[in-house]
Amino acid sequence: MKKILAIVMAVAMVMALSVTAFAAETEIALTSDNLGYHTDATEANGGLNSSGEQFVVNLPETLEIGTTVTLHIKGSSDGDFRVWLVDGATTASNQVYSTTDLGLSGGDFDVTVELTVQNWNDEGATCATGVDFKGISYGTNLDNFTVTYLAIVTDGEETVASTDDADASDDASEEVADTSSTETSSTETTTTNANTGVALAVLPMAVAAAAVVASKRR
Fold first, then answer.
1. Residue 44's beta-bridge partner residues?
2. Mean pLDDT in consecutive groups of 10 residues from the start of the chain, 218 residues
3. Is the pTM value of this prediction over 0.90?
4. For the chain, counts of helices (H) and of strands (E)
5. Where on the phi/psi map is residue 16: left (φ > 0), alpha (ψ -120 to 50), or beta?
6. Rounded distance, CA 72 to CA 111, Å?
7. 3-state DSSP call for residue 7?
8. DSSP 93
9. Which of 10, 47, 120, 199 has fewest C-beta within 10 Å?
10. Sign (positive/negative) of CA torsion 176, 179, 180, 181?
């Protein structure tokens, strides 16, 4: 009996380690009609491409001063670049550099950046309405820069996972509760409740604890 309980405990702990809590992620449309104040980009390779000075992608909603967000960005570039939030043409957050902040210097990338909406350098920003991609320094252009995926997480708790991990999480959620997932387009929001993920992580631990108690009583 103790051997059976030991096996149950081991399986339960493995299940607990495999559960991941996801935050809400909103994918932003990468189309020419969703460009903001700076429009120097064209649709290409499933996203937006530019070798110009800069381009702005509109956010799905206006972000107020003090809001901290995480951007999930995928793409490629032949050179270095910067990214930040803007209010029209006005800088509205800290700037993130591909070289010093992200450790990138050309090639494919899949990164997350954290930005805080603010009146940067007292330029007059009152909110953030777009994401600005620009050359690495003043007077330089983007170098065959392509962004193929752009998403925003407003609670700052994003956990990036592979497609297999996401599918596994969805399957586990369906077994525990009668829920359904909906595939979304590039302008819709995909949300996996973080509380559900935590509950799923605690459940196998509780099973393991019960097994320990039962084994001691015997």
1. 47
2. 43 44 81 96 95 96 95 96 97 96 94 96 95 95 97 58 41 42 40 43 45 48
3. no
4. 3, 13
5. alpha
6. 6
7. helix
8. B
9. 10
10. negative
